[in-house]
Amino acid sequence: MKNKEDKKVLENAQLKSIDQELFSNAYPETVAPLNKYMEKLANWARANSLWFLAFGTGCGAIELRPLLTSRFDIYQKGIAPRPTPRQSGVFIIGGYSSVKTLKRIIRSYEQMQNPKFVISLCSCSINGGMYFDSYNTINQIEKYLPVDVYITGCMPRPEAIIAGFDKLKERILAGKTEGANKYVENFEYYKANQKKIIKDWDMPDYNW
Amino acid sequence: MKTKQEAIQTVGNVFGITAQHDQRADLSFITLENDKVVPALVHLRDVEKYVHLVMITAVDYIEDGNFQITYLLHNYINKTDIGVRTLINRDEPIMQSAHELWRQIATYQRELHEMFGITFPGSPRMEENFALEGWEGPPPMRKDFDTLQYSMKTYSNRSGRKTHDPKRYMKEQLKQDINKVYTDDKSTGDKNV
């Protein structure tokens, strides 16, 4: 019983007191890898069914549409768009994200099931790109989310995105994609950065 | 059917036009006094049949100490546009609300309130966030708002960022005054014309 009380819980301090009991205050936990061979098998399966969230967060998302057409035919690589975060495993940050979008990105990312991967598309999410001096767009996405693969360009061609997916596959097969665990391990760091930018935080600290 | 020029003539006789600019055959801008704008909009909508509100926009003329607000109206019958302009004081940016003429004006006015800090008393949902959620800084579309400085202060910046400004790059490449090159080009171009 004592252990249970020691367990860290989320404060959800920004929620109204009447709303606090409606949301879970459980702290996110890391997920340890399976045993050696099972993890390899699981990684092989994960690498060949990359379902990405069809949420176009910036102008780079326009380059995702040609991937689904017959010319580039991303389905042959086991990659498909999914409509909700609960069903998807890959989040593609499509270029710049305004502060307003960042809030939705965090909500969607936290709702995704483990293991989850993040691909950062375009130069805006790397160093601000052409919007580096904008009052309303963030400059470095990795301050707010752990990123697995970057695809540079303004904008990258669909071929570059396919190459990025191939790189992600390589990293998954090598067992190097522990982004979801990294997010939980550095939870305070990411939350502090997110809350520094998002002034009207009106959601729980972790969107279960 | 009245032409656009006749409509402007009538507005000028009734409300007084301080400036007129004919951009195209089917587009003119008229500048009115601050308090004459809403009555003029009513007249243009109900009498001159400029029934469609295309947009409202504002420009910050910081050097004159003014905001210029433009109401762009369209007439479906003779297919012409009239932009009704007015200047309001930048230090005290209050404008009469026109949300009772077209309901969608309230949304435009919310945007102008957020981006320029212009207040429209009586306009619905004026204090709510429009596009910027939880914005705490000064209105970002004002000219005296330094967006680069705000970005540097608020958002993290990755070091090692290089800029390739074409003008500076060409200056370094050519090792000469690029402005001189441009002006020389222009002068020769003019001679040919």
Can you describe what's shown?
The complex is a heterodimer of chains A (208) and B (193). Chain A has 208 residues and is of the alpha/beta class. Chain A has a single domain (54-208), classed as Rossmann fold. Helices cover 37% and strands 10% of the residues of chain A. Chain A contains 9 helices and 5 strands. Chain A has helices at residues 2-6, 17-20, 36-47, 64-67, 99-111, 124-127, 158-173, 179-185, 187-197; strands at residues 50-53, 79-82, 90-94, 117-121, 149-151. Chain A starts with a helix and ends in an 11-residue tail after the last helix. With 193 residues, chain B is α+β, with helices and mostly antiparallel strands. Chain B has 2 domains: 4-161, NADH:ubiquinone oxidoreductase Nqo5 subunit (Beta Polymerase, domain 2, 2-Layer Sandwich), CATH 3.30.460.80; 163-193, no CATH class. Chain B has helices spanning 4-15, 37-46, 105-116, 147-154, 166-174, 178-192; strands at residues 17-24, 27-32, 52-61, 66-75, 80-89. The longest helix of chain B has 15 residues, at 178-192. Chain B is globular. Residues 187-193 of chain B have low confidence and may be disordered. Chains A and B meet through helix 5 of A and helix 4 of B.
Secondary structure elements and their pairing?
The complex is a heterodimer of chains A (208) and B (193).
Chain A: H1 2-6, H2 17-20, H3 36-47, E1 50-53, H4 64-67, E2 79-82, E3 90-94, H5 99-111, E4 117-121, H6 124-127, E5 149-151, H7 158-173, H8 179-185, H9 187-197
Helix pairs in contact in A: 3-7
Chain B: H1 4-15, E1 17-24, E2 27-32, H2 37-46, E3 52-61, E4 66-75, E5 80-89, H3 105-116, H4 147-154, H5 166-174, H6 178-192
Parallel strand pairs in B: 2-5
Antiparallel strand pairs in B: 1-2, 3-4, 4-5
